[in-house]
Specification:
Distance between the termini: 21 Å
Subunit structure: The complex comprises the extracytoplasmic solute receptor protein and the two transmembrane proteins.
Number of strands: 0
Shape: elongated
Protein name: TRAP transporter small permease protein
Radius of gyration: 20 Å
Number of domains: 1
GO molecular function, one term: transmembrane transporter activity
Order of helices and strands: HHHHH
Strand content: under 5%
Structural class: mainly alpha
Mean pLDDT: 88
Number of helices: 5
Largest sheet: none
Function: Part of the tripartite ATP-independent periplasmic (TRAP) transport system.
Subcellular location: Cell inner membrane
């Protein structure tokens, strides 16, 4: 059930990231053409592109986390027995969980502090900008807790291979 939910969220985020990237390319290219060709431009595209980039980065980090595509070093892990790999897996997930909780707490505080602050050009609440970290952190906590649960119940052996890429 949780795996299905995570998979669907990742598919939705992947589509959204493609749309963000396409919108950013169109806005930045259009602004370059307008500035150099017609000595004008849209100031809103600069700010919107920056916001889309931040959202795309956090959503991409979540998708990478769920697919175990983040950077890792397997030199030691490959030489450990199954028990050692399980221990390292648990420790790494607990450390990542701690960091994600910090991201949620910090992002939430920034959202509250900036709730009434308006951005310079869009005049939208800058809390939207910080909501990307809160969403990433909260969803990443769910994924990490799910992976720890799979480890505890003995269903995480497929995640203990040397890398997610090799196991596919």
């Amino acid at each position: 059930m949780i795996s299905y939910f995570i998979k669907k969220i990742c598919q939705l985020f992947s589509i959204f990231m493609v749309l963000c990237l396409a919108a950013m390319v169109i806005m930045v290219f259009g602004n370059v053409v307008l500035r150099y060709g017609f000595n004008s431009g849209f100031t809103v595209t600069e700010e919107l592109s920056r916001w889309l980039f931040v959202w795309m980065t956090f959503l991409g980090a979540f998708v990478a986390l769920t697919q175990r595509r983040h950077l890792g070093t397997n030199l030691l892990l490959n030489r450990l027995p199954l028990g050692g790999r399980k221990f390292c897996f648990a420790v790494s997930r607990l450390l990542m969980l701690f960091v994600c909780v910090l991201i949620v707490m910090g992002g939430w505080e920034q959202m509250l502090l900036n709730l009434n602050a308006k951005s310079a050009v869009l005049e939208a609440s800058t809390a939207i900008f910080y909501a990307s970290g809160v969403l990433f952190g909260a969803l990443a906590c769910v994924v990490l807790l799910h992976e720890l649960w799979l480890l505890i119940t003995g269903n995480a052996n497929h995640m203990l291979t040397t890398s997610a890429i090799e196991s596919e």
